[in-house]
Description:
five-stranded antiparallel beta sheet; 365 residues; 18 strands; Chorismate synthase, AroC fold; alpha+beta; homotetramer
Amino acid sequence: MNGNAFGTIFRVSTYGESHGPAVGAVIDGCPSGVALAAADFLEDMQRRSGGAQPFTTPRAESDHVEIESGVYEGVTTGTPIALRVRNETQKSSDYEAFRHLPRPGHADLTTHLKHGHRDHRGGGRSSARETVARVAAGVVAKKILRHEGIEILAWVSRVGPHALASVDALPMASLKQARDASPLLAPAENSLLVEVEKLRERHDSWGGALRCRVEGLPAGLGEPVFDKLQALLGHALLSLPAAVAFAAGGGEALSRLPGSAIRDAIGPDARPESNRHGGLLGGMTSGLPLFLDVAFHAPTSIPQPIKSVHLQTNNVESILVGGRHDAFPLPRAVPMVEAMVAITLVDALLRAGRLRENLGVPAKE
Amino acid sequence: MNGNAFGTIFRVSTYGESHGPAVGAVIDGCPSGVALAAADFLEDMQRRSGGAQPFTTPRAESDHVEIESGVYEGVTTGTPIALRVRNETQKSSDYEAFRHLPRPGHADLTTHLKHGHRDHRGGGRSSARETVARVAAGVVAKKILRHEGIEILAWVSRVGPHALASVDALPMASLKQARDASPLLAPAENSLLVEVEKLRERHDSWGGALRCRVEGLPAGLGEPVFDKLQALLGHALLSLPAAVAFAAGGGEALSRLPGSAIRDAIGPDARPESNRHGGLLGGMTSGLPLFLDVAFHAPTSIPQPIKSVHLQTNNVESILVGGRHDAFPLPRAVPMVEAMVAITLVDALLRAGRLRENLGVPAKE
Amino acid sequence: MNGNAFGTIFRVSTYGESHGPAVGAVIDGCPSGVALAAADFLEDMQRRSGGAQPFTTPRAESDHVEIESGVYEGVTTGTPIALRVRNETQKSSDYEAFRHLPRPGHADLTTHLKHGHRDHRGGGRSSARETVARVAAGVVAKKILRHEGIEILAWVSRVGPHALASVDALPMASLKQARDASPLLAPAENSLLVEVEKLRERHDSWGGALRCRVEGLPAGLGEPVFDKLQALLGHALLSLPAAVAFAAGGGEALSRLPGSAIRDAIGPDARPESNRHGGLLGGMTSGLPLFLDVAFHAPTSIPQPIKSVHLQTNNVESILVGGRHDAFPLPRAVPMVEAMVAITLVDALLRAGRLRENLGVPAKE
Amino acid sequence: MNGNAFGTIFRVSTYGESHGPAVGAVIDGCPSGVALAAADFLEDMQRRSGGAQPFTTPRAESDHVEIESGVYEGVTTGTPIALRVRNETQKSSDYEAFRHLPRPGHADLTTHLKHGHRDHRGGGRSSARETVARVAAGVVAKKILRHEGIEILAWVSRVGPHALASVDALPMASLKQARDASPLLAPAENSLLVEVEKLRERHDSWGGALRCRVEGLPAGLGEPVFDKLQALLGHALLSLPAAVAFAAGGGEALSRLPGSAIRDAIGPDARPESNRHGGLLGGMTSGLPLFLDVAFHAPTSIPQPIKSVHLQTNNVESILVGGRHDAFPLPRAVPMVEAMVAITLVDALLRAGRLRENLGVPAKE
């Protein structure tokens, strides 16, 4: 029980089922003095809903974020920030067939085995709809980080089995531009659009991987031994729907190289002269750009029949999951990854005493 | 600050520096009624110290675990279990050269940037010596799991760039036998011994990967949305020294396949008919065997010169880290991985109310 | 930062300002299988709003609780329960005068000194309006406790300086009947109504004390050494607005008696033969009725002038807090106290592994 | 389970039984840069052991604190501080009679009912011996506070039923002097010595109350709504052995007065002109001196016979608790109260971002 909050000081609690009245996030531990308005959420909400990308769900989600507390006259007050998004387009009847027939590859079965009673409609709490709340909270975290000079950028780095060429060497601004110009949010890579379209026509889907880069971090962030920064980030990102693997810093590649090939000499002013370590040394930031990788499995809601069992009769039946079909949803994961990274980093700054409870107005002690 | 404890109910706090008087773990939240004696720790302590493996550090660590509280007449009482291991073979003078010269590829630099003042001897708190405490706590967790019919087994699955053949199909007992028969704790793979020996002679080192399998788990374990089981396990395992990547369930391979190739049909009694999902569905256990992968980078303490900076003079100098040299320390990580997995699983059982505070004596209410 | 959640497993997070759009609670860690409907909240919401008592605020608060997640077809599912109450009767203009003039005896001043920027309207987050969310969460906790055979009853035991005669000896049902028959929720005491009315006419107010009794508790509840049950209950109850003192078990009276007068002999079946200890021994329940006392200071929002300072001009001015005037709000605190006690006890049961994650449907493992 | 740690960032975990090999505390979350040596602990350890006071236990406890990690060359490093005190004078055989006979008025009975298996010797974990660890951790917290200009002073304010005259008006230095001059640590009150001596001869005991004052606090400390400062302090202090009641700020007296008598006008520079509120407004510090009261029940280990039950035979027997007899142990509680207050305040400063992770050396970011 009790797995719906993340963070030690900057703590985000989320609630809401796919077909309930609303989903939302409550952020406890946000400093006062941060400018925040409903319009701040539009871009990430739009990106998450897939409205701007091809091949993703046709669901037209408006996803307007209402701020229900914690902000007064456009500025945070230090009290809990409640963010709420109503669920509008619900066709619960679509899911009546799955009330007692768990969809293979989904949380339906394990939720049933855990809790006995569940909201089966649209996957209930295990629906990707849940990520609305994370992305909303991430917008707040990103605003705080930007104030501290820290920028986060995630992009699609692998489409199913097709790894894209590295863009690590690009400056942050160029990378952002290239990403935003790609319908797949995969910088400099458009040829795979045709492949994804073919896959969709075959009623199939792909997962893949996202890569994320963070610039402007102070050195020494992260709390060894159990809360090394990669451990906190791994926790955060592996909690996303369909996430199956995570790597940090130099990543998995480091584990294939000899020790002589992975060290970075240290130069004047305590600054590493190269970044093979990918921004992390001993679980703490080095001050150089930080890199992260997350892999997601393909969507299992595809219009191909598969066998399942009726939970009441114990009869095995063939089922077909209809409705929406995301052939390649990874572009929608971009704001989710950025959100979880941002939330983790703000919390790390607060735990280290590097942000006070009052950011905007000089404290009077 | 405050990153030296792990777990919500079964909470393990560790302390101790490499060259201080002792390292230790305090376990808060262990049920009463678990048989525990100093002898229980011997096997994992020996394995962690590398005493039984070739190519690992020649340090002869006895690592005797003293139980200082929480156990009375050989059985846990429900109060905190304090486990303490004295540090015996200390040559602090070996490290005097590195007082102001951070070793590249280590936490020396980032610890300095974070805390200013540090115990530089042997890496202080960032030394692998710290894992003594984790392994000791893991022994307690494994005893509880065994009592519940849950078994954990980790083994070396990749040696530097060399991935070993899959042993997933072996029964648990055969797998354990094969692992224990291998000097590298890599089932059915001895030819790499020669490669590792050559590497050691070249003053270099390898990382690689471990794979872990858990059997006997009940279904429904894990707490979505933020504390999905893979998120908790990822947090736990990515906190190990040198860990750079983690995968759970079907693992990274799943992210390269189409959706049609990764689903498992569900058969009678709500049981998946195959285990492509690797034991996890929607962040909860399915009741089938659980698989995990962790990758570690190579040791950076190799006897090859590299440049570093003097933190007081800001002069760049060439340094040579002498002393022990682990060409391939991954066999030592086997009990560390098993420990962190066991600690995570016991905590997950407790959070779900599946273990009471009194295991051994019928409760009187 | 981060003080708006309570509990380890059964964790209640609240949000909302007095004059914002809504206040709410999110309960994470509630087992599945608990019947819950909007109607369950009516009685405690009505009592909290003071609608049924004389001398309390004339504010007619409907306070309808909307369940936004965690309940499906009338039964909890184990996912977060989001409870939301809209704020309807807002006259923010009443408070414009206090934007820069902190009301003495309120949190206005300290909130300003802490956060710089605040929602001054109606006290913002420090308004008693915040307790709506607690009381709502308490209703859920009381339903779980009732299912376990545990009953909680709080009543007014002191009106300003006037302590009422002890009713500890009454059976629970009679006590409840006597309480509910009293306009002051003070069993068997109506003569003070006249005193309170006089006080109100003098533009003044009274605090006092509440006493609370819990029956049906299992023995051994509470987690020494830091989370003794009285410590957890004290934390919970001292967090209520205007709470100034707390006592548990035998209470403060015990501290005035010699050791020979406070012990209870232990009889057959490990049962104390009397209850001088008030249900607590060594921080754990004994299985006998548990008693608690909480004292509250008088409301400071009274229509008598007092000096304050203008936070921008630093000029001292005389201010008069108008609007509603609660001469004796303690009856409204009855459901608040019951709520905080219930929340604490459900969490204590969960921490001890005495409630599973699935209450209503037999677990399938 | 899991009640042996306190604090969110500055987190103190304790372990150890009365008759085990050692008791200890691990502090996670202490900033680097604090000077700390074994000698710092002497005064409070001596006071806790009662060596300097009459009427308290004759047990001659040396209680030397060993620092096992977290301090290098006399200064904290930011890693966990492990403090360990060996138990030396153990006569376990004294307790053999109580193995199956719970002592009335003690935790023996409830520990048995909770955990089934327990270390009965000397009360095990429920012994006052446990407070050694708290007091040691408190010494570290007090050093940090002193560095911030914050001073804590506790004293005996009531001896059994005899309340001493208020000393609130004394300056801090005079108060400390008066306290330290009194054998009872009760400023300006020695006449009760005779009473206590008579009580001891009658084989009886007294509890009473301590009062505590804190000066130098910044304004705005405390985290409403659930972690108001009085709630955190109440939690901390009610966790002490034998604590039965707690009051904060203006205390219980406030709850007996009309609203018109408890407000403090606010003067220039946002400073209250009087301190009826006792340093707390709305759960946050006002910047004026903070006052706290804690009441303790009398020791129940007195040499007078009482009935108990044999837990195996269910026979009721008369038992006599011999050995040490503290007629009035409250002077020993003085360092315990100061410790818990200090720990709570350091944690509150850290949660508010008012202390960084590195106190002594300028951070390099």
